[in-house]
Design a protein that fits this description.
single chain; OB fold (Dihydrolipoamide Acetyltransferase, E2P); 2 domains; four-stranded mixed sheet; 2 helices
């Protein structure tokens, strides 16, 4: 972290033990994700006007590169479990960990993108030998085996037919798996 974490206590006496637990939790987040540049945590004690105890609240703000941030500042809704400062601490850091994990994935470009399945055109068929070749959109010839064609459709394939396929690296180069006919011919 570029700056030291700030831990503040509001409505309660500062506790060295609680501060140490919070700093250990911050350290775990930093060890695991290592992307936070600044951290501010506010521990709010139960309001003084509650006779039967009150609810603890932890607000966590983590600054990340590229002006990103993780902010946990939801006030608990009358959930009596928040009368225990340890429960409030665990809940806040669990939510911070999830948000931080999502932000780091986005920064690393690891967000799932639903790519479209490539489309190819059947260019060669060796029906007796049970294989053929597709031409990909970038002009490469890609091998496929009869067992790769879905719904046992190898026998129904025709030259020039458009298909969806998944490309894999085979022993002799690229090969298509999960070849699915689209039922249309490619324009000549």
């Amino acid at each position: 972290m570029q700056t030291s974490p700030r831990v503040e206590f509001q409505g309660m006496e500062p506790s060295a033990e609680l501060r140490a637990r919070i700093e250990r939790r911050i350290g775990r987040l930093e060890d695991r994700y290592g992307r936070a540049t600044a951290c501010r945590i506010v521990v709010k004690g139960p309001s003084a006007h509650h006779r039967n105890g009150g609810l603890y609240e932890l607000n966590i703000h983590l600054a990340l590169p590229d002006r990103r941030e993780v902010a946990i500042d939801r006030t608990p809704h009358l959930d009596e479990r928040f009368q225990d400062v340890n429960f409030a601490l665990n809940d806040a850091f669990k939510r911070a960990r999830r948000q931080l994990q999502d932000e780091v994935r986005q920064m690393r470009g690891q967000v799932k993108l639903h790519e479209t399945t490539p489309v190819g055109v059947v260019r060669k068929l060796m029906a007796d030998d049970g294989y053929g070749f597709l031409e990909s959109a970038d002009g490469r010839q890609i091998y496929f085996h009869r067992n790769s064609v879905t719904d046992r459709g190898f026998e129904r394939l025709a030259l020039g037919e458009r298909v969806h396929f998944t490309e894999e690296q085979g022993g002799s180069g690229p090969q298509a798996s999960r070849v699915r006919p689209l039922g249309e011919r490619a324009p000549r």
